Automatic annotation (TrEMBL):
Protein name stated in the entry: Sulfatase N-terminal domain-containing protein
Residue ranges occupied by any Sulfatase N-terminal domain in the UniProt entry: 22-366
Superkingdom assignment: Bacteria
Keyword flag Cell division: no
Pfam families found in the cross-reference section: Sulfatase
Length: 483
């Protein structure tokens, strides 16, 4: 099947001529696949749902590392986190000064490029990559985006971190909070770009539903308290590696959150989930504004739209919060393409990677895919979404706590059925723990079945795939597989 995909892609490349398609590139922070179009009927996401209905939605899309800075650097550079130390989270301009990033690739090919909002994690990266066409509005209070006097007062008193409450919902217009203002600026920029003869690459980064969960009150009101429920995943996965899941991370830094993880009571957890859902609906409205602007300017029939999340998220699942694991709940993301004259209403279960965005956009625009790019074009799936179901995709997560010497990496090989993880001591290459989750019988990954002898064949296959991937990757540390 993989051979079929590559041969199909080759044929397309031979026949396709350069297309002057615009690209609207929508990045959403901390957005998990809990959307109506992904089966979560309790979530109000009509605009993202429509985008999916008008194009193709991928249900098994995974980022390469479930943290903002690394995921974004990998996507924009087209390079796996293992290479050049990307997994450390340092700035792209320091790690990859000579790499042809996605935005620079489009600029090199005659596109006008512009960004608004969070595209790269590091602000200097965004400024360096987009120059004068970076339009993120400046924020007060170290960019935390609070509106209410109570929150601002708390931040002023919290001189160490300048962080206020974990959630806030003021009765204000959408543009008073940053995502609404970013979207308004992006719409204005889109109008300017539309008047130029050159095609454009417009990157729009929406920061919610990242903490703090802040949005206009009307979105909070969309979710009555009685409609919110706690996660059904109360415990850590059975037999999982002891360091596979962190507890709370950044949530601890907000003043209205208890500092001991087991002190998050049900009422607080319910409010956090409600606040997250409200922020999802807030950014969904901004997606709708962007699409309406495309229509208003007559650009829809000549613009490729891609929407993606930079990683998933836990809302009390596994008694944990935020991201930072190899579990599917953290690596699986919304992944939607909408193309001019493309088929509508397609849903693909084929495993794909966030790395595939770069080469896919290149091919859709009739441009030659740069040789350094690690992902592969998934354009053939736009015609037949059932292709390549046997593909293996890869994610990783490092243990960075000092008591573990910052030396253990969790490497994951994911198929349409399994999530297989090897925890490796990087200094020796020794595998210190393994995990296997069978989604056919355990879609929520509640039990590690690596010790079940009936999976011996599958474990061997996935381990070999993972070992080959690691050994053929140009990374900064030495890796020697030890059985």
């Amino acid at each position: 099947m993989l051979t079929t995909l590559y041969s199909f892609q080759s044929n397309i490349n031979e026949k396709k001529e350069k297309q002057n398609y615009n690209v609207l590139f929508i990045a959403i922070d901390d957005l998990r696949t809990e959307l109506n179009c992904y089966g979560a009927s309790h979530i109000k996401s009509p605009n993202i749902d429509k985008l999916a209905a008008d194009g193709i939605m991928f249900k098994q899309a995974h980022v390469q590392q479930a943290i903002c800075m690394v995921s974004r650097a990998s996507i924009m550079s087209g390079i796996r986190p293992e290479k050049k130390g990307i997994y450390t989270g340092k700035a792209v301009q320091d790690l990859l000064p000579d790499v042809l990033t996605m935005n620079k690739f489009f600029k090199q090919n005659g596109y006008n490029i512009a960004s608004c909002g969070k595209i790269y994690h590091h602000g200097l990266d965004t400024k360096n990559q987009f120059g004068d066409d970076e339009m993120t509005p400046k924020s007060t209070w170290t960019g935390k985006g609070y509106v209410t006097p109570e929150a601002i007062e708390k931040i002023a008193l919290n001189t160490e971190f300048h962080r206020g409450p974990a959630y806030e919902f003021a009765d204000v217009h959408d543009t008073i909070y940053k995502d609404g203002l970013n979207t308004l600026n992006a719409m204005r920029k889109m109008e300017v770009l539309s008047k130029d003869d050159k095609p454009f690459f417009l990157a729009v980064g929406l920061s919610k539903p990242h903490l703090p969960f802040t949005a206009p009150k009307k979105y909070w009101d969309m979710y009555p308290a009685a409609s919110i429920h706690l996660s059904d995943l109360k415990k850590r996965p059975e037999n999982s590696y002891r360091q596979a899941i962190r507890t709370r991370g950044e949530l601890n830094s907000y003043y209205n959150i208890p500092q001991q993880y087991d002190e998050i009571d049900d009422a607080t957890a319910l409010n956090l989930r409600r606040a997250y859902y409200a922020c999802v609906s807030y950014v969904d409205a901004q997606v709708g504004n962007l699409m309406n602007q495309l229509d208003k300017l007559g650009l829809r029939e000549n613009t490729i739209v891609v929407l993606w999340g930079d990683h998933g998220y836990k809302l009390g699942d596994y008694n944990s919060w935020c991201k930072w694991t190899n579990m599917n709940i953290d690596t699986n993301v919304p992944f939607i393409f909408n193309t001019p004259n493309g088929k509508k209403g397609l849903v693909s279960e084929s495993p794909v990677e966030a790395l595939d965005i770069y080469p896919t956009l290149a091919e859709l625009c009739g441009l030659e895919i740069p040789l350094h790019v690690d992902g592969q074009s998934i354009v053939p799936l736009f015609d037949d979404p059932t292709l390549n179901m046997d593909r293996i995709v890869y994610t990783q997560w490092p243990i960075t706590r000092q008591d573990y010497d910052r030396t253990i990496m969790g490497y994951s090989a994911k198929s349409s059925r399994f999530n297989y993880v090897e925890w490796v001591k990087l200094s020796t290459g020794k595998v210190v723990a393994t995990e296997l989750f069978d989604h056919e019988i355990d879609p929520m990954e509640t039990k590690n079945v690596v010790g079940d002898l009936s999976y011996k064949k599958e474990i061997k296959f996935l381990s070999e795939k993972l070992s080959k991937r690691i050994k053929t990757t140009d990374h900064d540390h030495k890796f020697k597989k030890i059985d």
